[in-house]
């Protein structure tokens, strides 16, 4: 099923993301995924990530057979925040190890002045 984002409605601190679900040869289905905006702040997740998170949540719910209500939960946002932190930690570790390797080889392999054995 493909999802088409149709906009959102906001009521107080809840944002309702609207999607149309499209399958070839089937009627268009309408879905709403609700997200409590305070959860974004509590988990330090940018509100701009809400659309993607809600689309992923909807796809996951439908894969599990949940055709009823769809809600982005605190666990969903916490899991996303943890994944972002882990990815950032991996990147930082890679930068650090590349920096150490580069410092030890600095001026050797790429130097036009290195001794060519002549």
Structure characteristics:
118 residues, alpha+beta, 3 helices, 4 strands, 43% helix, 25% strand
Instruction: Give the helices and strands as they follow along the chain.
Output: EEEHHEH
Strand order within the widest beta sheet: 1-2-3-4
Estimated radius of gyration: 23 Å
Uncertain segments of ≥5 residues (pLDDT<50)?
A: none
Overall mean pLDDT:
87
**Could you give a short account of the major beta sheet?**
4 strands, mixed
Shape: elongated
Task: Please describe what this structure looks like.
The chain has 118 residues and is α+β, with helices and mostly antiparallel strands. The chain has one domain (2-100). Helix content is 43%, strand content 25%. It is built from 3 helices and 4 strands, in the order βββααβα. The protein has helices at residues 37-42, 50-63, 74-104, and strands at 2-11, 14-22, 29-36, 70-72. Strands 1-2-3-4 form a 4-stranded mixed sheet. A hairpin with a 2-residue loop joins strand 1 (2-11) and strand 2. The longest helix has 31 residues, at 74-104. It is elongated and about 60 Å long. It starts with a strand and ends in a 14-residue tail after the last helix. The mean pLDDT is 87.
In short, what is this structure?
With 118 residues, the protein is an alpha+beta fold.
Layout of helices and strands:
Elements: E1 2-11, E2 14-22, E3 29-36, H1 37-42, H2 50-63, E4 70-72, H3 74-104
Parallel strand pairs: 3-4
Antiparallel strand pairs: 1-2, 2-3
């Amino acid at each position: 099923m493909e999802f088409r984002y149709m906009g959102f409605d906001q009521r107080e601190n809840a944002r309702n993301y609207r999607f149309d679900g499209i399958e070839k040869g089937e009627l268009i289905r309408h879905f709403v995924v609700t997200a409590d905006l305070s959860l974004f702040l509590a988990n330090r997740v940018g509100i701009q990530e809400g659309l993607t998170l809600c689309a992923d949540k909807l796809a996951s719910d439908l894969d599990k057979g949940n055709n009823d209500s769809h809600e982005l939960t605190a666990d969903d946002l916490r899991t996303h925040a943890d994944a972002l932190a882990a990815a950032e930690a991996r990147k930082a570790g890679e930068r650090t190890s590349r920096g150490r390797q580069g410092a030890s080889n600095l001026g050797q392999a790429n130097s036009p002045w290195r001794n060519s054995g002549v």
